[in-house]
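Translate structure to sequence.
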């Protein structure tokens, strides 16, 4: 199955997402707490897909997405957003986000989004 990097400043969100991904056969290659760590880990592991929270300290998810896509144009990044982040979601789409997952997480939505993005 695909290798996935989780980037989210919420330990709870990372734990929930890891559990959902691993239960569905995906391999979580790492977890990052902010956009800069996410970029660094992407460069190190080059996963098949990244789940990227939008609002994080140090570097936002949108800025991390832009940096990843600039250096790795084929990167597949799925943004994770809470309600009320439409402006950031628009910027993320314009910056190359493959898809979105909304919090709170829905197992079927996550499975469908990841399958669609990975199959491409």
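Result:
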């Amino acid at each position: 199955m695909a290798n996935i990097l989780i980037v989210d400043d919420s330990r709870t969100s990372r734990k929930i997402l890891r559990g959902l991904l691993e239960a569905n056969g995906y391999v979580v290659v790492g977890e990052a707490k902010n956009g800069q760590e996410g970029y660094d880990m992407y460069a190190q592991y080059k996963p098949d897909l990244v789940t990227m929270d939008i609002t994080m300290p140090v570097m936002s998810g949108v800025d991390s997405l832009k940096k990843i896509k600039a250096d790795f144009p084929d990167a597949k990044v799925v943004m994770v957003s809470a309600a009320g982040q439409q402006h950031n979601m628009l910027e993320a789409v314009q910056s190359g986000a493959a898809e979105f997952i909304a919090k709170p997480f829905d197992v079927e939505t996550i499975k469908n989004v990841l399958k669609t993005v990975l199959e491409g």
